[in-house]
Amino acid sequence: MRYFNKLPGFIKTPAGLEWVLFKKIPLIFAVGTAVPVSYMLTIYLRYSPLNAEQQQIIYQCLGLLFTIWFFVGTLAIGCVVVMLMKGPAYVADPYDLPKENKQLEQHPEP
Description:
Layout: E1 5-6, H1 17-46, H2 52-86, E2 90-91
Antiparallel strand pairs: 1-2
């Protein structure tokens, strides 16, 4: 018994935008992380006692940071799903049904 039986005659779809995006994900993640973190570090290192406005800016930067991370994660999952869907098609092994009562399948005569 072979586990992954490929569907005969299946034409594989060529790669498209998903690979371009998938290769840019580390760059998007790095730049998207560096911008809010650098701004937060600047505020932390420049001002020792933080006032309410500076704390609010830091919280907004944290919100932006988590939003970017969730966006990049969703983008990566979407790219992987599209890559899997464009791959070769597989068929399952046949499953023999148990013996049934053939009289139940007969239609009554009109």
